[in-house]
């Protein structure tokens, strides 16, 4: 489809540069696109795995993480074009429509437009069923995808969308759309690269790059059953971590440069451990809970995440990490806030100020790619500035701090009431729930909201000096 009024064409230098940035930097976090056959069809200018819509969606991602200001400025241009083309394609959607919706959904959420992003992802999940991707293509009696390669690509797209569905469910605290019992898709297998693969890499991604660079709702339950389930999940996660291939291993003693996707994988693991073990807010006053194993696991995962941040920063840019990194940062900040509350520490305690300063620095590093991060950082900085000067104010501050922890997990009460609308006692009674609500994201993480303008100059010197003391 030609768009004469649009200043960029898929094969021009700008689009190729942004596409190369995408595949060189963040492709491993966007596995709904199968790189090899996308490039094959892009080069041939025909085929089922390429469309201009998907190309411009990829260019929008490339623009969002580009280090060149002129290319970064093109983000809204490509985002608007890709979005318009997606809507035009909905009358006769294909696989690239679904892939574009997933990519654009992540972008919109990261830009603070959570309702629009949630809508795009939801449309993708619906299309997954509409296209029959939840049924293994090997069982289709009549299919346009006759080759084993085509069938495998459909499986990979399904599992990529399945993972995104679970990430969005955790992020927003909403029920997932895709369930394992409704699908019979087999596990993915290795498939051969297109014959022209190495020449495609040289032409469109990078000269002499290795062709194998990227190998590839709440229910009412009793506490005992919930604890048993949590323990089962914990055991499964630890077993999964222990059985990872050697090339995916990492620990605090790992030396040398570790691939970025390995570090990200371990960030996701420890984020999951925090989500699994963090105690409900209303139980934080219970001494047994505060001294329990769950809190200790959260502290251990926080320490691991901070080490991962340090390792990642040596060789890579945080801006290239996917949207779930916002969840990681929120979970890490929440554990620091929980630690301060449980230990009744002050902000200048080095066990609080040092990790919090590190987390806030990383938040600042990603705020341009994910403006939704600004609201979280501003909430924390406001909490620091509002610390009481006497015992009575300090006790109230701990109650207010619980409300901020509520924001980091969910928003049981509207955000305007988070800064003192309730007293400390009532503030301890709300359920923590999940991470972030749509209303909070829309009202406080929008680019147009002046409250989201991140200004760290007032509190950063305090944190840094406290961390050094």
Task: Outline the structure in words.
Helix content is 59%, strand content 0%. By secondary structure, the chain is mainly α. The protein folds into two domains: 13-204, no CATH class; 223-468, no CATH class. The model is unreliable at 214-220, 388-392 and 410-469 (pLDDT under 50).
Write the layout of secondary structure elements.
Elements: H1 13-25, H2 35-44, H3 52-65, H4 69-72, H5 75-89, H6 95-110, H7 114-130, H8 148-172, H9 197-204, H10 223-242, H11 260-277, H12 287-290, H13 293-315, H14 324-343, H15 350-366, H16 372-385, H17 391-409, H18 424-427, H19 438-444, H20 460-468
Helix pairs in contact: 1-3, 2-9, 3-5, 3-6, 5-6, 6-7, 7-8, 10-11, 11-13, 11-14, 13-14, 14-15, 14-17, 15-20, 16-17
Largest sheet: none
Q: In terms of structural class, how would the helical and strand content be classed? A: mainly alpha
Any low-confidence stretches, pLDDT <50, length ≥5? 214-220, 388-392, 410-469
Report the end-to-end length measured between terminal Cα atoms.
62 Å
Our estimate of the beta-strand percent is: under 5%
- The gross shape turns out to be globular
Write down the domain tally. Answer: 2
InterPro entries: Transcr_Regulatory_Elem (IPR051615), XnlR_reg_dom (IPR007219)
Organism: Verticillium dahliae (Verticillium wilt)
GO molecular function: DNA binding; zinc ion binding
Domain Xylanolytic transcriptional activator regulatory: 117-196
């Amino acid at each position: 489809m030609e768009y004469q009024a649009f200043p960029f064409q898929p094969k021009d230098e700008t689009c190729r540069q942004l596409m190369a940035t995408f595949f060189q930097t963040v492709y491993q976090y966007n596995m709904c696109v199968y790189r090899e056959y996308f490039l094959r069809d892009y080069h041939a200018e025909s085929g089922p795995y390429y469309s201009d819509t998907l190309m411009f969606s990829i260019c929008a991602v490339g623009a969002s993480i580009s280090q060149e200001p002129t290319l970064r400025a093109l983000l809204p241009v490509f985002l608007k074009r890709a979005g318009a083309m997606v809507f035009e394609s909905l009358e006769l959607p294909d696989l690239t429509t679904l892939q574009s919706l997933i990519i654009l959904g992540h972008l919109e959420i990261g830009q603070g437009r959570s309702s629009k992003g949630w809508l795009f992802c939801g449309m993708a999940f619906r299309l997954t069923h509409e296209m029959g991707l939840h049924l293994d293509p090997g069982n289709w009696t009549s299919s346009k995808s006759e080759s084993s390669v085509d069938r495998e690509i459909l499986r990979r797209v399904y599992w990529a969308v399945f993972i995104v569905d679970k990430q969005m469910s955790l992020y927003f605290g909403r029920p997932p759309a895709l369930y394992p019992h409704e699908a019979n898709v087999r596990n993915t297998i290795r498939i051969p690269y297109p014959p022209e693969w190495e020449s495609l890499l040289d032409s469109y991604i990078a000269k002499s790059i290795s062709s194998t660079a990227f190998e590839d709702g709440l229910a009412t339950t009793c506490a005992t059953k919930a604890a048993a389930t949590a323990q089962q999940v914990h055991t499964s996660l630890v077993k999964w971590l222990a059985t990872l291939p050697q090339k995916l291993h990492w620990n605090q003693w790992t030396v040398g440069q570790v691939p970025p996707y390995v570090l990200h994988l371990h960030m996701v693991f420890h984020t999951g451990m925090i989500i699994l073990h963090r105690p409900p807010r209303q139980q934080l006053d219970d001494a047994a809970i505060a001294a329990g194993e769950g809190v200790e696991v959260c502290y251990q995962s926080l320490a691991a995440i901070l080490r991962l941040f340090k390792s990642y920063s040596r060789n890579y840019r945080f801006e290239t990490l996917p949207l779930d990194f916002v969840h990681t940062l929120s979970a890490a900040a929440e554990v620091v806030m929980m630690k301060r509350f449980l230990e009744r520490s002050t902000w200048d305690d080095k066990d609080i100020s040092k990790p919090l300063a590190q987390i806030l620095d990383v938040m600042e590093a990603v705020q341009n790619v994910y403006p939704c991060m600004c609201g979280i950082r501003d909430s924390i900085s406001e909490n620091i500035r509002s610390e009481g000067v006497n015992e009575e104010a300090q006790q109230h501050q701990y109650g207010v701090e619980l409300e901020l922890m509520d924001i980091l997990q969910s928003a049981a009460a509207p955000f305007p009431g988070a800064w003192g609308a309730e007293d400390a006692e009532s503030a301890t009674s709300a359920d923590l729930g999940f991470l972030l609500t749509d209303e909070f994201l829309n009202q406080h993480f929008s680019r147009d909201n002046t409250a989201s303008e991140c200004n760290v100059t007032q509190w950063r010197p305090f944190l840094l000096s406290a961390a050094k003391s």
